[in-house]
Amino acid sequence: MPKEKSHLCLCLDCGGQRQLLGNCRLCDSAQTPEAITETLIFNMELGYPTIEEAINKFESYLDAAYDAGFKSMIVIHGYGSSGTGGGIKQTIRRHLEGNYYIPKVNHYYFGEDLKAGSEAYEELRKARSSIKKHQSHFLGNAGTSVLLLG
């Protein structure tokens, strides 16, 4: 079975599938695409960015995901090389706790709080039942955060 590409959207001009950011590869439309899945999985660690680079890229993806109509976003920020929380993880979580991303982020969960059967996990499943198919990315994983977009 082919792996789901959770970052794909629908081009509103030509109807083709396209990436979230950039122009449509089929018709070169710059119009905001429409999400074709509820959840975007975003890996902040790709390319080993600095904290500033990672946060800037995250904020671009958050803005685009919100505009495209994604309902949730799984953010893979890693643990940090010390295992106790690297700079990217600490910064993104500090911003979430400080409500920096309101109104785009309605609620958030830290991966280590999402254990099967936990109150937080059950609350998340009630809010976004489709998130269950992505639980391998975040269940009990302190290197992730799950954002509910609003």
Automatic annotation (TrEMBL):
Residues 50-112 form the Smr domain. InterPro entries: Smr_dom (IPR002625), Smr_dom_sf (IPR036063). It comes from the Bacteria. Pfam families: Smr. This is DNA mismatch repair protein MutS.
